[in-house]
Design brief:
The protein is mostly helical. It contains twelve helices and two strands; from the N terminus they run E-E-H-H-H-H-H-H-H-H-H-H-H-H. Strands 1-2 form a two-stranded antiparallel ribbon.
Length: about 375
Amino acid sequence: MTIADDRPDEAEAPVGAPVEVGGIAAVTPGLVFRWAAAATLGVLAVLLASMAVYAVRDILLLVDIALFVAVCLDQAVHWLVHHGLRRGWAVSGVVLLLVAALALFVWSIVPPMIHQGDILIKHLPGYVRQLSDESRAVRELSDRYHLTDKLSRLAADIPGRLATSALGFAQRFLGALLSTVTVLVLTIYFMADLPRLRRGLVRLFPRSRRTQVADIVNVVVDKVGAYMIGNIIISVFAGVSSFICLAALRVPYALPLALWVAIADLIPMVGATLGAAVCVLVALFTKGPWPVAIVVTLFFVLYQQLENYLIAPRVLRNTVNIPAVAILLAALIGGSVLGVIGALMAIPIAAAVKVVISPAIAAMHEPPEPVEAGPEPGATAP
């Protein structure tokens, strides 16, 4: 046998396959080319997918908002289904109620709010001037920073600015209207098919994990929906009580101020303070520091205690309890990514994450089950 007979038959080996030399697989140039081509195609696929996602980011944002709203309203749909209605009729009823509430809100709030807001802007320099005449501290502050002159110029420039930006405002308004209609239509579809979406999500996991995943999905949807509906109810309480207080004290612009309090109360941690600060400032400029501004301040301090220790625990008793630090961090991260919408969506997402990881953390801290000792080696059974 010659030395050539001991060599592997390279003619019969496929192109690019590793060749064994002395029992060790050798890397051929063809194999290197195949690896490089596969890696290049993988990088190109990831790059194209990233570009596609970036191109449709606005649509994906609307889809996320619609799915979020559908999950929040699923509690109301589930309640109607539990009381005997078919899901299609329940979804239709919730959507009609939502549209009617939005229409009533716009019809009853927007015109008075625009009218009173316009009056507030026009009269704000006069309020500052009047307060400066009555208070030495405010007069010194106004003289130092020229607040009266700046507010007067702002009030005089607003009509001209509105006229020059009318076209841009119309475009933004139509865009917002189209986005709202798109979110509403997608929300209807998601609400109608939410049980099917749940089942489809569960089927993505192995059979051994589907029961556990189904329980997690159900808990997440139920807790997140209850959390958001509870927050909306608390905001309605804040807006209505603020309107009653401001109207009773005859503070001007009570309606837009109460609306601002209700919207600001949705923002976690700092929203209630922002809403109260604006109301106190308006009361201070229009009615003076005593007694109206002091009474408004005391009202918001007392209401916050009532909301924190009585209203919120009762409304949110069936939802996920999240630490204050987690709420603040989630709101900051969500706000930096998607603005106010992100800050509102970040809290239920954090609640969902807590629901998902809580069983795993609890399992880690459980003591191990005792293992029964078997018979010793060499021992005979009795």
